[in-house]
Amino acid sequence: MGGELNVGIIGCGNISAAYMSLAPLFRYIRLRACADIIPETAKTRAGEFGLKALSVDDLVADDGIDIVVNLTVPDAHFEVSRRALEAGKHLYSEKPFALSVVEGRELGRIADESGLRIGSAPDTFLGGSHQLARALLDSGAVGEIKSGTCFVQGPGMEMWHPNPDFFFKPGGGPILDLGPYFISNLVHLLGPIRRVGAMSSSAAEYRTITSEPRYGERIKVETPTTVHALMEFHSGAQIVYCASWDVWKHGHSDMELYGGKGTLHVPDPNFFGGEVRMSEGSTYTNIARSWEHPLGRSNRGERANYRAAGLAEMAAAILAGTPHRCSYALALHTVDVMTSILASGENGRFVDITTECERPPPLGPEEAKTLLA
Prior knowledge:
The protein has helices spanning about 15-20, 40-50, 55-60, 75-85, 100-115, 130-140, 175-190, 310-320, 330-345, 365-370, and strands at about 5-10, 30-35, 50-55, 65-70, 90-95, 120, 145-155, 195-200, 205-210, 220, 225-235, 240-245, 255-260, 265, 275-280, 285, 350.
């Protein structure tokens, strides 16, 4: 299979640099242009990465763009994505791709009517460590997973992000911001989720920015900053998920899955690599398998970073006429799970998940190699 699709990015904030610097690692995509609501921001990014700076209107209307990548803030995702789809572009969105199932279904309707694809971050579950965890589970190495835990906890984004306001507004918070990494990876490993229950809270009414250039400004907290959730999967597994920006330090591992024959430790799904550990019974063991996955190799300091892998895999699937892994159905299911967790935190009742999706197929080392330039 050959060919490539031309890509335009809307939203030139922090995450755009990762996409722009990493996209050249992959086949099937070619970055052509970028746009931002602040024209100077787009011009700066365009200059850094050799792209064409356009207005948002001009990028959406450009006949030379095949895929629009939506990197705007969450509460702008729906409108920008709708405009891209209505202009006949395939869509790849940063997470969360919508803030409600209703919004997500509307985007899906537009795409279906026009024969277009929707893809969404996160694509970190395509990383080498998470694909190793998938291979171990599929081989029955630790038996059937019955339960597990996930923890993603820290003191908050206002300590490092230059404009952290949106993290504390509806559409932000640790569930909608960090939840996509954990929930997408869990669905990739265990399959879809049946129902959820949760309790939620916020430790403070205001947060004080300690990053530059807005040091000392206060932000009103408008969404829960601590959520303790329980997820029941169609497989029967029950997973505890705790997400918080009110925790200074903790000693929990990122993800532990408990099977009938042993335990599997999965590294932070915010990243492509990391150590996978497994026990056989009560004894930890070396994972005796040859596993050289190209999306698990360190390429940014000590970390493996392959953001844009999902975008490239979607482009390859479009060209081949096959399904893609960071799919609309997975993204919509993830939104359903996250918004249901937030609803349960408000009303104190379990919430049934109304959407369905399949486990994405595994991405083994040989197939992953075909994505790289």
